[in-house]
Design a protein that fits this description.
Blueprint: E1 5-11, H1 17-27, E2 33-37, H2 50-54, H3 66-77, E3 82-88, E4 93-101, E5 106-110, H4 118-121, E6 126-131, H5 134-149, H6 153-172, E7 181-184, H7 190-206
Parallel strand pairs: 1-5, 1-6, 2-5, 6-7
Antiparallel strand pairs: 3-4
Length: 207
């Protein structure tokens, strides 16, 4: 198999990254695709107390083990399988379980900081930023955290104002300039997704 085509998909929380990713994968169903979610690579915190773990800012680049992610992507490029970590959100640390990932034609790396690390960006063939208005993103995050994570509305709003929004403005929004293409309104932008999948197909044929 030839060198995999590496796609990076970034954007703020609730921007529609996951919808874009799913639609790209569906549009490229004739190809073998591996999806790596950056959230798998939250740093191991087993050496910390639970009180210390609860103070972790998951919206800061330092929360992620980019060295391991880069190592794994380089291994996949070299046609080597990897065991990617998983995260235990109950105990706020890395779990003992891993997921075996095989090299595929296309590797998609998705996460809020997918374009933040220069070394990781340099491995990518296509860099995508999903850009959605902040009011839509906070409503989506609120709906998700209340429904799926049992959070109260007040706690979600407080976290957004004190952590999520400042981190977005400081670290995520600036990575837009590193992207090859910006997709407004996420998965609803069918034209942009068609353009991206056409480009990805052309890259796959070249390698």
């Amino acid at each position: 198999m030839n060198k995999p085509t590496i796609i990076g998909i970034a954007g703020g929380t609730g921007s529609g990254k996951t919808s874009v990713t799913r639609k790209i994968i569906a549009s490229l169903e004739e190809h073998d695709i591996t999806l790596i979610e950056q959230d798998y690579y939250y740093k191991d915190q087993s050496h910390k107390t639970m009180e210390e773990r609860l103070k972790t800012n998951y919206d800061h680049p330092f929360a992620f083990d980019n060295d391991l992610l880069i190592e794994h992507v380089e291994s996949l490029i070299n046609m080597e399988s990897v065991e990617i970590p998983t995260y235990d959100y109950v105990n706020h640390t890395r779990s003992d379980k891993t997921i075996k990932i095989e090299p595929k034609n296309v590797i998609i790396i998705e996460g809020i900081f997918a374009l933040e690390n220069e070394q990781l960006r340099d491995l990518m063939d296509v860099k995508i930023y999903v850009d959605t208005d902040s009011d839509i993103r906070i409503l989506r995050r609120m709906a998700r955290d209340i429904k799926e994570r049992g959070r109260s509305m007040d706690s979600v709003i407080n976290q957004y104002l004190t952590v999520v929004r400042p981190m977005h403005l400081q670290f995520i929004e600036p990575t837009k300039r590193f992207s090859d293409i910006i997709i407004p309104e996420g998965g609803e932008n069918i034209v942009a997704i068609d353009i991206i999948t056409t480009k990805i197909r052309s890259l796959i044929k070249k390698v």
